[in-house]
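User: Fold this, then the next.

Assistant: Folding the first:
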Amino acid sequence: MAPVNSDALTLQRGIKGICPSEAEEYRLLFSCQYCSIYLGSLCVLVCHSFFLLNSWDFIPSIYGFILSVPDLTPNIGLFWYFFAEMFEHFSLFFVCIFQINVFFYTLPLTINTFKCY
């Protein structure tokens, strides 16, 4: 009888599935691990930008511009066209809808894909 390789056994267990109580622990560990990696990377990038510029003025210039869409000059995307064609008093509503639009696609896809594991 050949010796059992623990790495191969772990991989095989992950592919075939594990008992439900262990699966919940792995899901929680997986979620916490990738959330911390994402937040850590974001923090490193923002702090690196601060040390390069010696000010926090870049935050409203980058993230504020993306969220508020103040410039409506024509470009490759269709964002400017939608905002140029609507009435001014609806602009805040449409900006919010367009920014939330990303979550309408990513959250169901993430939940559906997460069930496959």
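Now the next one, as you asked:
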Amino acid sequence: MVVLLLAYAALEAVANTLGAIGKAPDLDRRRETWFRFALWIVLALEFALAADIIRSAIAPSWNSIGQLAAIATIRTLLNWFLVKDIESYNEKREARAEAQMRGPRE
């Protein structure tokens, strides 16, 4: 499932990137592509962590529990930083949209 999500996300990002070839550089389009790809990665990390938890719950051993703890910590930190980046980008995007709605200042 995780591989399919990431494959779809990668295909979507590649399609958006290829669609921009030959056009004027558009920073907003690049950021939007990154934003959508980041959202897919967050979803994939959630599914991967859930799968690891289920796997350890089915056949627990101290070794698998230790590995799960390490993997869960790393994935949780990755997810947290990625979500912070997404929130920051989203705030900037909303501020730009709001400024465009107000129009040029006189």
